[in-house]
Amino acid sequence: MEPGDLPVDAWQRLLGQVRGAVEERLQRGLDALVREVNAAGDEFTAGRALTRGRVTLRAVRTVLRHPCLPEDFRTPVLQAVDDQIRTLQDTLEQGLDQRLAAGDDPRAVEARRRTYRDNPLTAVLDDPAEGLPPAPAPHTGGRRRIIRPG
Questions:
Q1: Residue 70's pLDDT band (cuts 50, 70, 90)
Q2: How far apart are the first and last CA of the chain?
Q3: The dihedral formed by the CA atoms of 84, 86, 88 and 94, expressed in degrees to the nearest 10
Q4: Can you tell me the distance from the alpha carbon of 110 to that of 80, in angstroms, rounded to the nearest whole number?
Q5: What is the DSSP string of 81-92?
Q6: For residues 30 and 53, is the Cβ–Cβ distance under 8 A?
Q7: Would you say residue 125 has pLDDT above 60?
Q8: C-beta separation of 68 from 1 below 8 A
Q9: CA 139 from centroid of its chain's CA atoms
């Protein structure tokens, strides 16, 4: 679809719906990630939660990098998502400083810090754009023919 395919207000509503769906998926994924990491009793479980979180983040970023989305929509929304990823990584690590200040076992806190740094959420920001679907061929406006076997 192109912006000219719809009235301006309909196009804006469509992009708003896409943005809302992406933000909702991102927030649900981040909420689940934080719950899992906070509930993790060991570093393996925490690392697994971070890995699952990166799967969600990659999926969201893949949708936003789709070539069919208009560049003036795609770029700022992707930047906002990337900023949120960086902020969450920083927040996780700052939470460890708070745990140290609260008197938690320094060895356990440093082990978790190592887990966060060995499994950073920000690794998705460096992912290549490989695996993106190719841009569809432009519609020529002609009739489609359906050929049925037989």
A1: confident
A2: 34
A3: -140
A4: 30
A5: HHHHHHHHHHHH
A6: yes
A7: yes
A8: yes
A9: 30
